[in-house]
Amino acid sequence: MTTQGGLFGHARSPSRPSFVAIGLFLGCVGIACGTPSEGGSSGGSGSGNAGTSGQSGGGGATGSGGHAASGGVDSGGHAGATTDAATMDARGADSDAPPSNRGCAANLPRVLPFDPQRAQRGEAMFRSMPLATGILPEIAVRALWLTWGVLPPATDQDFWTQARKRYGMIEAPFDNGGLPLGMRRDGAAVTFDCMLCHTGRVAGKTLIGSPNSTIDLESFFDDLLRLRDLAPVVGIPPPPVPFDLDGFTSAVGAHDAFGLGFRFVGAANAGLNTKFGPQRAPGWWLLHYKERMYVDGSAQASGHRSMMATLVAFGVTPDQLAAKEDSFVDIAHYIRSLETPCWDFTTLDASKMSRGQKVFEANCARCHGVHSGPDARYPNNVIALTEVGTDPMRAQRFRAQEAAALSASWFGVPPFQSTGGYLSQPLVGIWARAPYFHNGSVPDLMAVLDPTKRPTRWRRVGTGGELSDYDVERVGFRYEEVSTPSDPSTREGRLVYDTTREGMSNAGHTFGASLTDVERSDLLEYLRGL
Questions:
Q1: Would you say residue 80 has pLDDT above 70?
Q2: How confident is the model at residue 1 (pLDDT cuts 50, 70, 90)?
Q3: CB 332 within 8 A of CB 304
Q4: Half-sphere exposure of 87 toward its Cβ, with a 13 Å CA cutoff?
Q5: What is the rounded end-to-end Cα distance, in angstroms, of the chain?
Q6: Hey, what's the torsion of the CAs at 297, 298, 302, 304, to 10 degrees?
Q7: Residues 377, 107: contact at Cβ < 8 Å?
Q8: Strand-pair category, 421-423 with 457-460
Q9: Residue partners of 227: CB distance under 8 A and separation at least 6
């Protein structure tokens, strides 16, 4: 394939530089969309629908009532949203009953269908094979402990336990040969796949499709650089370092993947922006409700090519990429099949939920949509930056020029658009998507609803993924406030969410400020159950 025009190459003739760049920023940011104004009241009106899209190939059955179609795609018996033993089922989309303390209360209609057989094949790709070619010798990865300042791990299991903790990776909920979730063997080498960033550990549950809010790839590649320097001293071959992620991570789980991609292709020389601010990975279970995706609604949710982009950064050639396209349609169907993980930590109070639904529909539904009952509908509203007031970096810097460059690439089908705002998300499974806002700057839903409770600098207690680390009352992470600035170029500094840093503001979305304490409490109960 040859390069034909444009910084990122022609839409039908991708070039290697375009692959590496777009691969990192699209694949890491995700298929669905992060949440710029998640949770709580959004009383202002939306600035209009961002447009509709056709549905991608494969067609097939839409799961009845919003559920996965027969022959569910998770080997645990559920449609993939959770991998623990508890079945957490969503309510049918045809139900108009009031909220209940059983299952999820939302019954938004599906927009994107999925084919059960394609979904099963898509899931199998994550469980049984590497999606990309190996980019790092496993022996080099296994030697990373030399950079940690610790005694040699006694066993492989000890090494991977320490590695998961250091780099914020997740233990695989299925047999992955001892490797963390999202890392796969390819002969004597390892590579990565989507699960690295798109599966999280939340309140003691491993949730497929939940953002990994602890991942710190910058630390992983920093250690590779240190190991390369140490290699002659300890007598091992210098490991390859595929790319430098310096400045990629503002805080664990919050990465400027878009900016990294533009930077890699020298976009600054073409007058394009190369910094867009940190963004969290999305909740995959949102995708089938939506017509738009990404934090700013800049792309159509029916597209599947953008999710393929990460593979190029991980060694897949242009010809191999084109050959994998049909397989990635299968993966898209798997993602569309995923159900919302439902709250099961407390018995929800039906009276509070009923009152909370009224608060939600009076204050939040104009932007986020009605989530329960016969009028349930998600409106795909892009909210103007002047109205929502959250961190402006992404909305302002992804301009028409950047959208045009992406649209001219192989990955720009369907095309991108600059919106100048943020997509107001569906709030299903909102309890499992902390921290909040598109940049992860707010640790819990209580602080989303009450701006006076937002900490300026904070870090999570514990590992961030266990039940003891989760605040059931405030709905989000337990945290401690930090008084002094930290250095994001260090691993310890990236554990701190510092909202004074560029792109990390926790301002805006003040729509809950006028609610009473009782109204907030009722609204939180309703949001727990969505």
A1: no
A2: very low
A3: yes
A4: 11
A5: 47
A6: -120
A7: no
A8: unpaired
A9: 140, 143, 144, 146, 147, 239
Is 149 buried (19+), middle (13-18) or exposed (0-12) by CB count in 10 A? exposed
* Dihedral angle sign, alpha carbons of residues 335, 338, 340, 345: negative
Q: Name which residue leads in pLDDT, 382 or 6.
A: 382
Closest CA to 212 of 192, 189, 194: 194
Tokens matching residue 90:
């969503």
Can you say whether residue 282 is alpha, beta or left, with left for phi > 0 and alpha for psi between -120 and 50 degrees?
beta
The distance from CA 329 to its chain's CA centroid, rounded to whole angstroms, is 19
- Residue whose entry in the numeric block shows the structure tokens 């073409």: 270
For the chain, give the number of residues.
Answer: 530
More confident residue, 342 or 241: 342
Most confident of 58-67, 249-258, 380-389, 461-470: 380-389
Hey, which residues does 205 pair with through a beta bridge?
202
The label of the residue with tokens 């998507």 reads 433
Give DSSP secondary structure letters for 341-380.
PPP-SS---HHHHHHHHHHHHHHTHHHH-B-SSTT-B---
Q: What is the DSSP letter of 180?
A: B
Residue 349 phi, psi dihedral angles, 5° rounding = -80, 115
Distances (CA, A) of 419 to 33, 305, 325, 395: 14, 21, 28, 7
Residues with Cβ within 8 Å of 483's Cβ and at least 6 positions away in sequence, in order, are 457
447 and 481 Cβ atoms separated by less than 8 Å: no
As a whole-number percent, the residues of the chain with pLDDT over 70 amount to 79
CB atoms within 10 A of CB 296: 28
CB 49 within 8 A of CB 449: no
pLDDT tens digits along 277-317: 999 888 999 999 999 999 999 999 999 887 786 676 666 77
| pLDDT recorded at residue 29 | 42
pLDDT at residue 8, rounded to an integer: 55
The DSSP element (H or E) to which 401 belongs, if any, is: helix 400-407
Read off the pTM. Answer: 0.84
Cα–Cα dist 302/288, whole Å: 9
SS3 letters across 272-314: CCCCCCCECCCCHHHHHHCCEECCCCCEECCCCHHHHCHHHHC
Is residue 109 within 8 Å of residue 236, measured between CB atoms?
no
Q: Are 93 and 66 in contact (CB under 8 A)?
A: yes
Calpha distance 337→285 (Å, rounded):
8
C-alpha closest to that of 389 among 430, 426, 422: 422
Dihedral Cα 468, 171, 221, 306, nearest 10 deg: -100
List beta partners, residue 136.
190
54 vs 286: CA distance, rounded Å: 17
Contacts of 291 (CB under 8 A, 6+ apart): 49, 50, 51, 52, 53, 111, 300, 301, 302, 380
SS (H, E, C) 424-457: CCCCCCHHHCCCECCCCCECEHHHHHCHHHCCCE
For the chain, the maximum distance between any two Cα atoms, rounded to a whole number of angstroms, is 68
